[in-house]
């Protein structure tokens, strides 16, 4: 079984974490033969207070989480203190050394930039932080109009709902386009706006 970890932290943006969870959990349950499982983790496990008031339960702590093949770092207001948290940045760098695919949603990419993971690479983030993002590491090739950017072992997505698109891309990449289309239909996700 290969594992996908979705990081949780206080003031995480709810949809940054729950959107990819919905896609990936649906995939894992609908296509168990693909051999993937998804879990949530936080520094200490337990209850995490999200940015808009939702409380969620991290299934694992850093210490007891299964080793991940893919790690997703969401964004939200909680990323601001993480940008200068040496323990968190060291943890991210340690994950980079062992996790084959590091993914992010929204301002999660800014944490990756602060940790040095995006040096000289293409990436994206929420449209409202592009200037701040560029200031973290001027070598990052920022693609502000892309919903997600796949650079092989690093995958970044734009803000909030773009994490759903990125997660569907993960399904297509590791489970095939047919499985991704089935998941998209199953969660009834239509990326065209209603207005």
TrEMBL record:
One of its GO terms (biological process) is regulation of DNA-templated transcription. Residues 4-172 form the DJ-1/PfpI domain. CDD domains: GATase1_PfpI_2. This is Thiamine biosynthesis protein ThiJ.
